[in-house]
Design a protein that fits this description.
There is one protein chain. The protein is built from 15 helices and 13 strands. It is an alpha/beta fold. It has 2 domains: 238 residues, Rossmann fold (3-Layer(aba) Sandwich), CATH 3.40.50; 160 residues, Glycogen Phosphorylase B (Rossmann fold, 3-Layer(aba) Sandwich). Strands 3-2-1-4-5-6-7 form a 7-stranded parallel β-sheet. A 6-stranded parallel β-sheet has the order 10-9-8-11-12-13, with helices on both faces. β11, α11 and β12 form a beta-alpha-beta unit. The protein is globular. The model has no long low-confidence stretch (mean pLDDT 94).
């Protein structure tokens, strides 16, 4: 099969969740004998997979992360030529940050079956993560709210950046831009042969916007499923570990409440990653041990020093790979019941709670206060690895074939 993966907006070598996933999927497909091309930003790195051909694309009008609706960009003629020359069996969209609306609206006219992996909420939310201008989480598509959230001033990149730098909120001047964009995206998703949702919740949110599309829920593979669990270093303390970014949407406020309420003396709370400084200072004062940035090579050592993984976003995180890392290392998880976390963390593999519920937050704190190392060890012994990238890629290829038979 000849496959084009579309992951515009970044270099393929960029160490982000989506690009990591695209590299992994493309590598397995190439190893299985498929001819695999990836459309992404130009990249002089040698880290992209062997057997995978990079097709570079640079837009002239579309700026990634801009909230402006760009209808047309003449640069897409490069992609049109590529599609006409290569005659792909399947196009697989992962990101479309560099693509104008007309290209997505008219893609079905190329008569190439296409799959869209719903890695985030870009196709229904211009802000990508369904977090509004005031950093509040949206849990469904509300067009009346979208009109103010993506206001007229928000669409002017220079104005938006200046306001952010000065810490000044922009006046909410309503606009129809988000509604116009969603109309295009609905058509694009509806015409796809297949929509791959990383979790049940992701499919639910998207299906509310596009109820007549073809959805399949497929948990993505993570390389940690191929590795033996990290050997634990001994400690008489319970070590809680959070990874990634500490921000409001990632649950920094929830962690702050937990640290204020949990008082057991034999517990440590660790963080590896980047903290938004306001939260960082406050959480360090409450006892958080902040180790700063880490690289993927550090993960085995971090996992070896972790008894409970902490994954507590308040946004509907589609398929958090850090939760997969913890589960694949047989580390019980303290997590919020948001996005893909309930699909990744079984109810008996830690403790899940609803972050907006005061009662459930208290239950989470009570679990932290009373859980024993022997109980965590028993939970760990029951945990099993999740899907490997190889298993996931084989399943995706089978779904391609099913979609092509139905085309």
């Amino acid at each position: 099969m000849k496959i084009l993966h579309i992951a515009t907006g970044f270099k393929l070598s960029f160490p982000g969740g989506i690009t990591n996933y695209v590299r992994s999927l493309a590598a397995v497909q190439a190893a299985c004998g498929d001819e695999v091309h990836v459309l992404a930003r130009p990249d002089d790195s040698a880290t992209y997979p062997s057997g995978v051909t990079l097709k570079a694309y640079v837009p002239s009008c579309v700026a990634p992360f801009s909230l402006e609706n760009v209808t047309r960009d003449p640069s897409t003629s490069q992609i049109v030529k590529l599609l006409q020359e290569e005659r792909y069996d399947m196009a697989h969209f992962h990101m479309a940050l560099d693509l104008p609306l007309h290209f997505l609206r008219d893609f079905a006219d190329f008569r190439i079956p296409y799959t869209v992996t719903l890695n985030d909420y870009y196709f229904v939310c211009p802000r990508i993560f369904m977090v509004d201008a005031a950093a509040n989480v949206c849990r469904e598509i509300d067009l009346d709210k979208c009109k103010s959230c993506i206001g007229r001033l928000d669409q002017i990149q220079l104005v938006r950046r200046a306001a952010k730098k000065l810490g000044v909120p922009l006046p909410r001047i309503a606009s129809t831009a988000a509604e116009e964009r969603l109309t295009v995206m609905r058509g694009f998703l509806r015409n796809a042969s297949l929509l791959l949702a990383a979790s049940t919740r992701t499919a639910e949110i998207y299906s509310n916007a596009v109820p007549d599309a073809h959805f399949e829920i497929e948990q993505i593979g993570n390389e940690s499923a191929n590795m033996p669990p990290a050997m634990k270093t001994k400690s008489d303390r319970i070590r809680f570990t959070a990874l990634g970014t500490l921000s409001k949407s990632k649950g920094a406020g929830v962690l702050e409440e937990i640290l204020k309420r949990a008082h057991r003396t034999d517990a440590e709370f660790h963080f590896y990653g980047r903290a938004h400084e306001g939260y960082g200072r406050r959480l360090r004062r409450l006892g958080l041990i902040d180790h700063g940035a880490y690289v993927p090579e550090d993960l085995p050592a971090i996992m070896a020093k972790t008894d409970v993984g902490v994954v507590i976003p308040i946004w509907e995180d589609n398929g958090p790979q850090v939760a997969m890392e913890f589960v694949n290392n047989r580390i019980p998880v303290l997590g919020t019941r948001r996005g893909g976390i309930p699909d990744i963390v079984a109810e008996n593999a830690g403790f899940l709670f609803e972050p907006d519920s005061g009662a459930e937050l208290e239950q989470a704190v009570d679990w932290i206060e009373h859980i024993k190392l022997t109980e965590l060890s028993a939970i760990s012994s029951r945990m099993r690895p999740l899907v490997t990238p190889q298993q996931h890629a084989l399943r995706v290829s089978e779904l391609y074939r099913q979609a092509l038979r139905c085309a």
